[in-house]
Write a structure and sequence with these properties.
The structure holds 2 protein chains of 2 kinds. By secondary structure, chain A is mostly helical. Chain A has helices at residues 12-17, 25-30, 32-43, 45-62, 64-67, 104-110, 128-164, 166-181, 184-199, 204-230, 233-240, 245-257, 259-266, 269-282, 293-298, 312-339. In chain A, helix 3 runs antiparallel to helix 16, helix 7 (128-164) runs antiparallel to helix 8 and helix 10 crosses helix 12 (245-257). Chain A is flat, with a radius of gyration of 27 Å. The two termini of chain A are 52 Å apart. In chain A, 41% of the residues are buried. By secondary structure, chain B is mainly alpha-helical. Chain B is built from 15 helices and 4 strands. Chain B has helices spanning 2-27, 49-56, 63-72, 101-136, 141-155, 158-172, 183-190, 201-207, 211-248, 251-258, 263-291, 295-300, 306-315, 319-347, 349-353; strands at 74-75, 82-83, 93-94, 99-100. In chain B, strand 3 and strand 4 (99-100) form a beta hairpin. In chain B, helix 1 (2-27) runs antiparallel to helix 14, helix 4 (101-136) packs across helix 9 and helix 6 packs across helix 9 (211-248). Chain B starts with a helix and ends with a helix.
Chain lengths: 347, 354
């Protein structure tokens, strides 16, 4: 005779079979997906180093007036010059002609109350240290504006193209095809050269051309993302109850389609700053003497034979630029791994 | 297969039209007077001549008339000869270098081609080799090293890398100078006894039996090739590694292993050929990119290719020259991309059969 066991209500057996896990308050707050992404980022040493570097650059940019006091507070992006001689000066040489105010930390650390050229000067006696510090601000400024505009434009075009489909999609995507023919740097260089006489020498021509040719990739990716989200049931449901097209697009489709793209795109700042520096290295960009890494580096072009003596005119701004781009790439690379659905659960 | 190629071919005229419209639109940023250089080298000497020139070349006509004139040129009312017309290969007059833009391209393009010829091998083969090694030693020491190398590689701006190697190998060690040739050899090449068979300097030097010229040219190209390789390796490594990892997970690879094939054969005979498909596209794009002139590398190393010429013209705001280069570049890229796509269809059976 079998004994029928009545359920006792204790889940001991279940508890043994399925490992229970404590869910922390943070995880509950962020949601499982975002929590996983955050954990993935914190576990990769590369992305931790990258984030710390980014933090460092943000601090430098914010503290620029303290780290390198400008000569004229109304025009801080102009690199102050120590005379006009062509020959670069080595790091540590004293600042003779019209030195800027010495900041308080400098006296405390060095005990010296004479301002020296910490990283030396380049051709024309532009102070390299000043250019590097204020160049950080230029980098963030141009990078943020360009990334924001390209992403916005890319999302807009990609979304409209994918949502309406048909003729609209065809026309927009053919425009993208045509703009894609010329390689990135060539295209931006050309447009910047065309725009400079019209707008005048400033950061604008280079920024506009980076935006004009930068959104293409995002438009294609977002279009693909949206095409897959568009067929989901909740979009159909919204359409059935008569929600407006623009509202479906903005409220239902875009938020669900583009989160990963947006995050990755925002890390594209490194690449934007790199292209921007390349343009100003070639001589397209702000006027001579503007605090901008590419420009500071371009001074080295006339001293190539004697770079063994004047190594500092490329090493300091060069390493700064490399570290800046590297920091964004480190975080971006880790994030790409975490977000990649094929790798999910393996990290 | 045939439909694929036909469809791909139909795209070419469309792209050519699109790019020409794009460039024509950029030309409209210039004032009509500046656009005179599209048709003639006569720069108006005084203000009285300007209205006449504008009228003669129809520079204030409706936009579609101007576009047509730009494509096929106009006829000089007095002499009757054709002026301008990009379809006939006339891209206008380059102010800054005082020669027709086409002449400038003709002189510079062989140098770029020469550099491409020598750079392709190291760029592609070494990049692929590194990618395969990284994938085979997945998550091992080599893979980690490759990963760091590739992140640092993509973060290193070309011009910073270029300036650093110039500092080390030129300023300090004096091994590899920038430029095209040492002065003595420039004179040798300029002599009438030196025949220019192909206008590719290294090949011509070999054909003329001048090994000293050949070696000198290579010595000057070493640093540009090193720089190009370094920046492309990162991409090749990443793509090859990803594709190879994907392929190694396929069932036919497991089958090959189960049959008891040696690991060497599994990797190099079974997995690698199939993993090469995405790499083929990348390789094609890289070669096309190199041929279009590598702006930064050529500029840093003072190498007289079309990339450096385009950069120079842009900095001097010589828009006519710059846009001439852009049109030429667009032409090369469209045709070369077509070739790459068609070749790819031959390589990949999935495209061939669909």
């Amino acid at each position: 005779m079998t004994v029928i066991q009545t359920p006792t209500g204790d889940n001991e057996l279940l508890g043994q079979a399925v490992a229970t896990r404590k869910i922390s308050r943070l995880e509950r707050f962020l949601g499982p997906d975002n929590y996983r992404v955050m954990q993935g980022l914190l576990k990769t040493p590369a992305s931790v180093i990258g984030s710390l570097l980014i933090l460092f650059f943000i601090i430098v940019a914010l503290a620029a007036p303290v780290l390198a006091p400008p000569l004229n507070p109304n025009d801080p992006y102009k690199i102050p010059r120590d005379g006009f001689k062509a020959q670069p000066k080595a790091p540590g040489e004293e600042w003779k002609v019209r030195p800027p105010k010495v900041p308080f930390w400098y006296k405390a650390i060095t005990g010296n109350d004479k301002w020296v050229h910490l990283f030396g000067t380049s051709q024309g006696q532009y102070d390299i240290y000043y250019g590097v510090i204020w160049g950080t601000r230029t980098a963030f400024k141009t990078g943020l504006i360009v990334v924001f505009s390209t992403v916005l434009l890319g999302v807009l075009v990609g979304a409209v193209s994918a949502y309406y489909g048909g003729l609209v999609d065809n026309i927009l995507m053919r425009i993208v095809d045509v703009l894609y023919v010329l390689p990135g740097l060539m295209a931006t260089l050309i447009l910047a050269a065309v725009l400079t006489p019209v707008i005048g020498r400033s950061l604008l021509p280079a920024m506009i051309s980076l935006i004009a040719f930068g959104w293409l990739g995002y438009a294609r990716i977002i279009r693909g993302d949206i095409l897959s989200v568009k067929e989901r049931d909740y979009v159909m449901a919204a359409r059935v109850i008569g929600v407006q097209d623009s509202r479906i697009l903005m409220r239902h489709i875009i938020p669900n389609a583009i989160f990963p793209t947006l995050v990755l795109a925002s890390l594209g700042i490194g690449d934007v700053v790199l292209s921007f520096a390349a343009l100003s290295f070639l001589g397209i960009g702000a006027e001579v003497g503007y605090a901008d890494w590419g420009q500071v580096l371009s001074f080295a072009r006339n001293w190539i034979i004697s770079l063994n003596t004047y190594w500092y005119i490329i090493v300091f701004p060069g390493i700064t630029l490399v570290l800046f781009v590297l920091s964004w790439n480190l975080v971006g690379d880790a994030l790409r791994d975490v977000l990649d659905p094929r790798l999910r659960g393996k990290i | 297969m045939t439909t694929y190629i036909i469809r791909r071919l139909l795209l070419v005229p469309f792209l050519l039209f699109g790019v020409s419209v794009l460039i024509f639109m950029m030309l409209q940023f210039l004032s009509p007077v500046e656009r005179v250089a599209l048709y003639t080298r006569d720069v108006p000497k005084n203000d009285n001549m300007i209205p006449g020139l504008i009228k003669r070349y129809c520079l204030d006509c409706p936009i579609h008339v101007q576009y047509w004139n730009w494509l096929v040129g106009t006829h000089d009312p007095i002499s009757g000869e054709r002026k301008g017309g990009i379809l006939f290969g006339d891209f206008g007059w380059s102010k800054t270098t005082s020669q027709p833009v086409v002449k400038l391209i003709e002189r510079r393009f062989p140098n770029t081609l020469d550099l491409t010829l020598w750079a392709v091998g190291p760029v592609i083969l070494v990049g692929i080799w590194m990618g395969v090694q990284a994938a085979v030693h997945h998550n091992g020491l080599i893979d980690q090293a490759a990963r760091i190398f590739s992140i640092v590689g993509t973060s290193f701006p070309t011009f910073v890398f270029g300036l650093l190697v110039l500092m080390i190998f030129y300023a300090n060690l004096q091994w590899f100078p920038p430029g095209r040739l040492t002065d003595i050899y420039t004179r040798v090449v300029a002599q009438p006894s030196f025949h220019h068979y192909t206008s590719l300097l290294t090949i011509d030097a070999l054909l003329n039996g001048r090994f000293d010229v050949f070696l000198d040219a290579l010595r000057h190209m070493f640093l540009p090739i090193l720089t190009l390789s370094y920046i492309s390796w990162a991409t090749f490594l990443r793509v090859t590694r990803g594709s190879m990892l994907e392929t190694l997970r396929q069932e036919y690879v497991t089958t090959a292993r189960a049959k008891g094939l040696p690991e060497r054969d599994v990797i190099y005979k079974h997995a690698r050929p199939n993993a090469m498909l995405p790499v083929v596209t990348l390789a094609g794009l890289t070669v096309v990119g190199l041929m279009g002139g590598v702006i930064i590398t050529e500029t840093v190393f003072d190498y007289p290719g079309i990339g450096a010429a385009a950069a120079q013209a842009s900095v001097q705001l010589d828009v006519i020259t710059v846009l001439g280069f852009a049109m030429f570049n667009g032409l090369i890229l469209i045709v070369a991309n077509l070739v790459v796509d068609v070749l790819y269809a031959f390589v990949d059976p999935r495209v061939r059969l669909s």
